[in-house]
Specification:
The structure holds two protein chains of two kinds. Helix content of chain A is 31%, strand content 21%. Chain A contains 13 helices and twelve strands. Chain A is globular. Chain B has two domains: 8-129, Beta-grasp domain (Ubiquitin-like (UB roll), Roll); 137-205, DNA polymerase, domain 1 (Orthogonal Bundle). Helix content of chain B is 25%, strand content 19%. Chain B contains five helices and eight strands. The chains are: A alpha+beta, B alpha+beta. The A-B interface holds A 1-7, 9, 28, 31-32, 35-36, 38-39, 48, 50, 52, 77, 100-104, 106-107, 234-235 and B 33, 49-51, 53, 69-71, 73, 92-94, 97, 100, 103, 106-109, 112-114, 116-117, 160, 163-164, 178-179, 181-184.
Chain lengths: 324, 210
């Protein structure tokens, strides 16, 4: 049983922001991650501020520039099922369809998916790890088969969000609302590496809410895909995932974006692979080289060297499938 | 099963640190959140330690006025307050699917839903799929396909199938597999469960008849 807490269901954005601006208050959107954290006593909460009833923050609407605005409360299930996303932003619809289980996709929101806490078993378990204010990342010496191959430490969790990787490849911009007003954060700057902040995973201040996700207008000749590899086929977090976005003109890759999930504490940009692909005609040899390049800089831990090979294969295979 | 849609709260809704809740359950047991002791009492007592809120939940078409602590999950309230024990407690962490119910027709984990969050929505539990004293089409299909061994996951599997078929009346086998991927069966009766889902789809199309 969770510890007792007070509960407030906000009816308006202003009410939610005001309620959240007090010590011990936590936001509840779909609740799937919050309740898990409270069950595991990862942190305590004095007041749960539910934003689930705020209509302004739910659903998708077109932007004047041809892009798309996605409210933070839009469910993962509705993103996965969206015909517009499937056609114009396939990488996001595909990533959403691979998130968790059908039940959790109906409840979980896109905002919550981006802001979920790490799934590292030491963090979630009964270990006083660095992310919980301790001095040690237990994964360094312990069971690290699921952990990061790209991290400067001192923490080696892998970011659990699939949609974060897809939205990185789409260069989404995030609207963040807080007591001082709203600000826009490019998704590339939203997530924080452990060397920048050990106690949080993104730039949100305690009283701030990620309210909207903005996608740029679809570019001519753009195509995208998401590939997720997991140890259980039914549902699981990614061991490795690849979000690809390519702009192709007469068979030539004019621009490439390649982001990896399941390998770093934030979505990981495979910059060397992107550089290799740009301006070239894609064929099997280039796809294989791009896979090799995507794994550049990886520093595997004792039990996760398989992820290096997984990255190479997943990137190569995703490229070939996207061009097929 | 409770026939009485309103539970009786021993005391007002605010200010007391410990409080007894009584819900009339035809064959129940005395229980507390800390310790459940089975005895011959004809009602169920649940003690709250925090502030309680009056809420209304619409479950299986009946609106029930109850008092809950904000931290109580929908699963806890369905079973312990309302006595609807068809919904099972499995992992209580959103991983196994035993507690699957429908909320506004969509399958959800009752263990990962706060009861206070389920206000204003249509909740359907296993009991709500009954057709009077007869089994509903999905339940009947599970019997006919022998789609269980120990049976503990079965209510959640049935609710997941019901949710799938309400969204997609003619699922392919792949869609059945995806639709049931959030429900674990430790006996691994999956093949029979998938067959039951297909049979249930046929039954529903024929108005519940095989």
């Amino acid at each position: 049983m969770m510890k007792p807490f007070a509960y407030l269901k906000a009816k308006t954005p202003a009410e939610a922001l005001a309620a959240l601006n007090s010590k011990g208050a936590r936001i509840h959107a779909g609740g799937t991650d919050l309740l898990g954290c409270l069950h595991d006593h990862l942190f305590t909460v004095d007041k749960v501020v539910s934003i689930s009833g705020i209509k302004e923050w739910s659903g998708m609407t077109g932007r004047p520039d041809g892009g798309l605005k996605i409210g933070c409360l839009t469910t993962i299930a509705s993103i996965a099922a969206s015909a517009v996303l499937k056609e114009k932003y396939a990488v996001l619809a595909q990533a959403a369809s691979e998130v968790a289980s059908p039940q959790l996709r109906e409840q979980g929101t896109i905002g919550g998916n981006l802001c979920q806490r790490p799934r590292c078993w030491y963090y979630r378990g009964d270990f006083p790890c660095a992310r919980k204010g301790g001095e040690t990342c237990f994964a360094v010496e312990g069971e690290n088969q699921n952990h990061a191959i790209f991290s400067n430490g001192p923490c080696f969790f892998v970011h659990p969000s699939d949609t974060a990787v897809a939205l990185s490849a789409l260069q989404a911009r995030l609207t963040v609302a807080g007591p001082a007003g709203t600000r826009t954060v490019p998704i590339e700057s939203f997530f924080l590496a452990p060397e920048k902040a050990i106690d949080r995973e993104n730039v949100l201040e305690p009283a701030e809410i990620l309210t909207e996700i903005h996608l740029p207008a679809p570019a001519a000749g753009a195509r995208s895909s998401y590939r997720k590899i997991r140890s259980r086929q039914s549902w699981d977090f990614a061991l490795t995932s690849v979000a690809l976005w390519l702009q192709v003109d007469k068979g030539m890759v004019s621009q490439a974006r390649c982001w990896l999930g399941g390998v770093a504490p934030a979505p990981w940009r495979a910059a060397a692979a992107e550089k290799l692909l740009a301006g070239k005609k894609l064929n099997a040899a280039l796809a294989a080289s791009a896979g090799q390049a995507a794994a550049e800089g990886a520093v595997p831990m004792r039990d996760n060297a398989y992820k290096v090979e997984m990255v190479k294969g997943a990137v190569e295979e995703s490229l070939l499938r996207l061009l097929a | 099963m409770s026939k009485e849609p309103e539970n009786n709260c021993a005391g007002g809704p605010h200010g007391l640190s410990r409080r007894g809740f009584i819900s009339s359950v035809s064959a129940g047991a005395a229980a507390s959140t800390a310790l459940r002791e089975a005895n011959a009492a004809s009602f169920q007592v649940i003690e709250a330690v925090g502030t309680v809120l009056p809420i209304q939940l619409k479950i299986n078409g009946i609106t029930r006025k109850i008092q809950v602590e904000p931290r109580w999950s929908l699963l806890f309230v369905i079973r312990e307050v309302l006595g609807l024990t068809g919904t099972k407690i499995g992992c209580e962490r959103g991983e196994c699917g035993a507690c699957t119910v429908l909320i506004d027709g969509k399958p959800r984990y009752a263990c990962m839903t706060l009861a206070v969050e389920a206000q204003g929505q249509e909740i359907t539990t296993l009991e709500g799929l009954m057709d009077g004293e007869n089994l509903g089409p999905v339940q009947q299909a599970f019997v006919e396909e022998d789609a269980f061994q120990c049976g503990f996951c079965t209510p959640g599997q049935i609710m997941a199938v019901e949710g799938l078929l309400r969204r997609n009346a003619s699922p392919t086998m792949e869609e059945v597999r995806v639709g049931l991927s959030g429900n674990l069966c430790r006996c691994a009766a999956y093949q029979h469960i998938f067959s039951a889902a297909t049979r249930a789809a046929e039954r529903k199309k024929k108005g519940g008849m095989a």
